[in-house]
Amino acid sequence: MLEGLRVASQNWIGRAIMGVVMGFIVISFAVWGIGDVFRGFSSQRLVKIGGGEVTVEAFRAAYQNELRRLQQRLRRGITNEEARRAGLDQQVLDRLITDVALDQKAGNLGLSVSEEETQRLLKSEKVFQGLNGQFDPDRFKQIIHDAGFSERGFLVDQKGAYLRKELTDAVTTGLEPPPVMLEAIFRFRNETRSVETILLLPSAAGTIRLPSEEEVKKFFSDHESSFRAREYRKLTLLAATPATLAKPGEVPEEEVRKLYDEVKAQRYGTPEKREVGQIVFKTEAEAKDALARLKGGLDFKALVAERKLDPKDADLGLVSQRDFGDPNVGAAVFALPSQGFTGPTATPFGFVVSEIRKIQPAVFSKSFDQAQAELRQEIAAGKAAPDVRRLHDAIEEQRSAGKTLAEAAKAVGLETRDVEPVDETSRGKSGTPVSDLPGGAELLKAAFASDKGVDNEAVATRDGGYVWFEVTDVEQARQQSFEEVKAQVEATMRKEAEQKALSAKANDLVEQLRNGKPIDNLAGELGLAVKRVTDVKRANRSDLASSTIVQFFEAPLHGAGSVAVEGGQLVFVVTESTTPKFDPASPEALAIAEQLRPAIQNDVLEQYVGGLEKAFSVQINQKALESALGGESDK
Hints:
The chain is an alpha+beta fold. It contains 24 helices and 19 strands. It folds into 5 domains: 32 residues, no CATH class; 165 residues, Triger factor/SurA peptide-binding fold (Orthogonal Bundle), CATH 1.10.4030.10; 135 residues, no CATH class; 103 residues, no CATH class; 90 residues, Chitinase A, domain 3 (Roll).
């Protein structure tokens, strides 16, 4: 055929025909085969980023390495289909794009890392050190061989990684959570409320009509999905939290007593209250003259009338010391040992003279002996908080090496805990709540989003700790038949009717409380006891359901509400709300900052990298990407 083409091109007619034919061939290739050449792509270029690129081969190699590491970590085989369904391919591509974008920026800034510095940094990596703490060449070779690298290839890879780290460290170093954010979280976690409650028993609902057989069947048919057997999971936990690391026995009694004296009024009872009248004078001389007249026998109400003041403005009612807007006035009022007059007290609005008409002593629900156990635990947890981060890093290092939770726990001197089958509401098969689950609802949410045999990220706890978990067994949910659940359906219908009647009655009582009726009077009329609940925070408590705690904080201070609880309907009034003073140097504040810092740094870094990618105009060859992924799938 080549000889024929040569002969045909000997005269002008043959050359003209050959020119037309070759033109068609060129156009065909341009349209169907090599169009990417004209759009800036070669057949091996997957991504173009400024002057850099990600090749198909680089993507495939990175994908295979990441897949191999994932298989080693999970200790089981993973198909390409599973990995791609989990988004591994996109994660690898995003990382490669980020690396190239950072390399481009480092090049623009003229940054570089020498081979000598790279080797020095590699030798300082703990993962390459032996038992003597020195660089172990044999260990180094084994690790990089398992990762699929040659020594030279690994050196080049790490040289780029160290350079990128220098660049990203410059962006994120020194970033700290704003103090206002720390204080907001601290206040949210540590606001403490006291409530007074009365419990409406089911008997208050009156007589509930029994449903007929047809009604029960219809209810089951309408709510069939509600009568499925729940899913249960067995868990193995490893907790490193201030509470689990605390050593209460090592806390001296004097520390516990000091804390008790500081918090007893807020946590364990009603603080002292005083009935107070108050007048503000423009000058100190006026205030001193008025105080002398009052002490001389002038009636306070007469002085209010003389100064043409509204009696309501001069009557503060029964107040505690922290109710005063000006702490100096509150201190002066509560410094007086008995009823009488005090002042003048200077304030930004003038000079205050106060009358103390009545003193209601403080009442404490817990003595020191009753409260010392929980306070000792609180102090011990605060002291243990600094150890949490050290243990977190040590456990993560063990997990990265492929150790099981039990092996990681043993390596750091802790023990794992096995949790028998539990549902996502923290109840066991008997229906009883599983007590003392570190991480609470957050742990269960993560556990039920995971699966058996999966390696999971640690769950952060509210007190600044961490919980690692493994799902060791899964009992799947299933639909139950009408015969299996008939009694349960009947009970559910009775309970719903009962709860509806109780809720209506509770709403009526709440309305009376909101209109000013004291809860003591209401309880007396109903023949019920008033129970005081103190030291309630937005955290799990063994004696209160999370839904109940939420309602306690939904109501305003001195407001009323109701909530369904085990055993009836709880009607409550919020009597006190306190928030401890925020100390940025406290162990809890430092723990909050420790948890927030990585998130803030990651947010800033994502924005920085996103800006780089936009500036360098990332272009992805979708055909090459599909080809690369398709090739992987076929293997």
